[in-house]
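Worked example 3 (structure in, sequence out).
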């Protein structure tokens, strides 16, 4: 058995990871409906026509697995749930709205046509965001493990369509349910109707293409992605982009002069102070000049705090605002020492048991605190995973 990654989150189930059918076009439609507050989830529903705002349950489950939407409260006594967009979902929704795209992706059975349609509307930014979101999911990571991407020497990995569908579904099914996968066993949870959602997405992103009953996985795209660097910045203001580029130049220069990791202790001081200045400026620009936890505004008290320990970050990571939080001195110390952290999925504060009730009160922290939703982008989540893993829960220490 390969080492798959299991998601540890009560809101995500195995069926969310490999559900279907969830065509890309339908996913985009549902993001719009969810953004307008019109999408509802009824477990088991096969309704594709959105009667009473209820969508196809399979598609909704897959979107939960992709981290685009979350289930909200139930409606009255029914088993129908409200749906809300996650921060990733909001990002895609905003681009759709900016480009005046309504829920009319009728070409949803064909991923190439959906891509062409986005191109014709000059809304390719959606592909970039979609890809970024997808690459951070357990679905994608487990796919790479299934394809054994680290050890493949060829440009393409060719697998028969049936072999792939049964193979990945079978292995993950066994991994998640601890029971062998039985083709045509009880229930409809078969590979043939679940894995195609994943395939659709892979075709859409050009990570794979079908040919003669086989699937050709393109190693280069899977490893490097198809990102367009110009879209990756995700900053619309032109002034900010030019500031950002100026700063990148300074960092490039420093990296060239002193190396990315930096071994010269004297030079390290010069290099770090410049990087740290840029880092702090970026944080202030991103979310305002105040402690992002308690709101204190006096700048003397504010520290640009690294999420992934600065000593573990290279120069680019040190200057990456996604790797940072602007915090007051006290909250910086608590965060830096691992006595508090923020859940990489929800942004909710995690407080160490090592802190007494009284100290919590004096340090002005409590369980209801969380990072602002708009800070929870995928880049920052990635660094928060590192921090969560280094959190001193106080359970075993
Ligand atoms: Zn504070």
């Amino acid at each position: 058995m390969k080492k798959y990654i299991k998601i540890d989150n009560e809101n995500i189930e195995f069926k969310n990871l490999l559900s279907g059918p969830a065509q890309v076009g339908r996913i985009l439609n549902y993001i719009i409906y969810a953004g307008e507050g019109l999408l509802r989830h009824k477990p088991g529903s096969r309704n594709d026509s959105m009667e009473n705002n209820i969508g196809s349950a399979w598609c909704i489950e897959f979107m939960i697995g992709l981290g685009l939407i979350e289930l909200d409260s139930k409606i009255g006594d029914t088993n129908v749930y409200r749906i809300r967009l996650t921060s990733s979902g909001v990002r895609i929704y905003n681009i759709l709205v900016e480009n005046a795209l309504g829920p009319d992706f009728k070409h949803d059975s064909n991923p190439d046509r959906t891509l062409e349609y986005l191109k014709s509307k000059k809304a390719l930014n959606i592909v970039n965001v979609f890809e970024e979101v997808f690459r951070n999911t357990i679905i994608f990571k487990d796919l790479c493990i299934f394809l054994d991407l680290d050890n493949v020497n060829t440009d393409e990995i060719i697998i028969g369509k049936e072999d792939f569908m049964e193979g990945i579904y079978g292995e993950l099914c066994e991994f998640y349910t601890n029971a062998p996968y039985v083709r045509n066993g009880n229930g409809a949870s078969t590979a043939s109707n679940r894995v195609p959602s994943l395939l659709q997405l892979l075709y859409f992103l050009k990570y794979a293409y079908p040919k003669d009953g086989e699937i050709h996985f393109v190693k280069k795209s899977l490893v490097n992605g198809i990102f367009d660097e110009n879209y990756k910045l995700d900053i619309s203001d032109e002034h900010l982009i030019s500031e950002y580029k100026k700063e990148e130049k300074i960092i490039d220069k420093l990296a060239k002069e002193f190396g990315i990791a930096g071994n010269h202790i004297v030079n390290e001081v010069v290099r770090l102070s410049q990087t740290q200045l840029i880092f702090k400026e970026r944080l202030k620009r991103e979310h305002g000049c105040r402690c992002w936890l308690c709101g204190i505004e006096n700048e003397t008290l504010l520290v640009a705090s690294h999420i992934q320990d600065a000593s573990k970050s290279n120069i680019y990571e040190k200057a990456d605002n996604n790797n940072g939080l602007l915090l007051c001195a006290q909250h910086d110390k608590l965060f830096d020492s691992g006595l508090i952290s923020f859940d990489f999925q929800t942004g909710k504060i995690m407080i160490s048991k090592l802190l007494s009730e009284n100290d919590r009160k004096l340090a002005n922290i409590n369980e209801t605190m969380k990072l602002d939703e708009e800070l929870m982008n995928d880049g920052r989540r990635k660094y928060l995973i590192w921090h969560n893993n280094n959190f001193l829960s106080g359970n075993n220490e």
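Notes: The pocket of zinc ion is lined by residues 291, 293-294, 296, 327-328, 331 (CB under 6 Å). Residues 14-224 form one domain.
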